[in-house]
Amino acid sequence: MNPKYPVYIVSKGRAINGTTYKAFDKLKMPYYIVVEEQEYDIYKSNVEPQGYGTVIVLDKTYQDNYDTFDNLGSTKSKGPGAARNFAWEHSMKNGFAWHWVFDDNVSCFYRLNRNRRLPVSDGTIFRVMEDFCDRYENIAQAGPNYLSYAPDRKQIPPFLLNWRIYSMLLIRNDIAYRWRGRYNEDTDLSIRVMRDGWCTVQFNAFLGDKATTQTMSGGNSDDFYFIEGTKNKSQMLVDMHPDISKLIFEYNRWHHKVDYSIFKKNKLIKKQGIVIPDVVNNFGMILKKL
Predict the structure, then answer these.
(1) Radius of gyration for the alpha carbons in the chain, expressed in angstroms and rounded
(2) pTM of the predicted model, to two decimals?
(3) Nearest residue to 6 (alpha-carbon basis) of 30, 36, 35
């Protein structure tokens, strides 16, 4: 299967070394990749020949009107939030109730089953996550966890409620929010929806292998992190949500630390008429030994 909702990658400076679009090509899964106008030709020549990706140009007005949550304006890159807002509106104009949006540095996707991380070979896992979210009235965001946060042989739940959704997001289109902030816009969006009583679902059953910050050229690494490190990024989130976040220094760089415990009160509300069967539905997925 493939996802029923549209899939977007926002990308900059990674027409050659971008990994998410190559991962989707291997899954034979259709997607859009949103790029700035000056990079359209190089992306088109690298992405579209495989037949699964469609390159679309970011409408510059989304950058002009983007809320960076600072006073620096256009003196430096505004980050990927404007392109994410563009993808959001693009999906709505095409009549969809949800959309997927991904960073451009995810190399592979996995199903965590019986404490083993197993690579997948098509887009079925995304359809499974969509099906889960469609059962409930009040999920605003969902997405797979990072591969590194779900090690083999460690028992963890299939999903976590009311946690931040990073880098790989399924977003409900009719919620009253949009991306903002030059940095940490994913954490900010998750916090804002949860503050208003919505739920988020982070799936451990499905995982993406995303490159660690500052380990890959292009994107935010070239625009921000190779130049200024991660302190400005983390400080912005503290400025946005000072009551639940703080600045810490760990693993030789600056991080933000957020207390998500205040959102435990947000509970899933099942849609009327939805019956969840007792029998496990694997959506046609089978385990193959390679």
Answers:
(1) 19
(2) 0.92
(3) 30
pLDDT of residue 213: 60
Amino acid, single-letter form, for residue 239? D
Does 279 reside within a domain?
no
Are the C-beta atoms of residues 138 and 130 closer than 8 Å to each other? no
Give the domain CATH number at 213. Answer: 3.90.550.10
| Residue 269 domain-assigned (yes or no) | no
215: pLDDT confidence band, cut at 50, 70 and 90?
Answer: low
Average pLDDT, the chain: 92
Which residues form the domain of 224? 7-263
pLDDT tens digit sequence for 231-269: 888 898 999 999 999 999 887 788 889 999 999 999 999
Q: Which of 34, 31, 210 is nearest to 106 (CA)?
A: 210
Distance CA(142)–CA(159), nearest Å, equals 10
Q: Does 272 reside within a domain?
A: no
Total domains in the fold of the chain:
1
Domain assignment present for residue 114? The answer is yes
Half-sphere exposure of 173 (CA within 13 A, CB side): 17
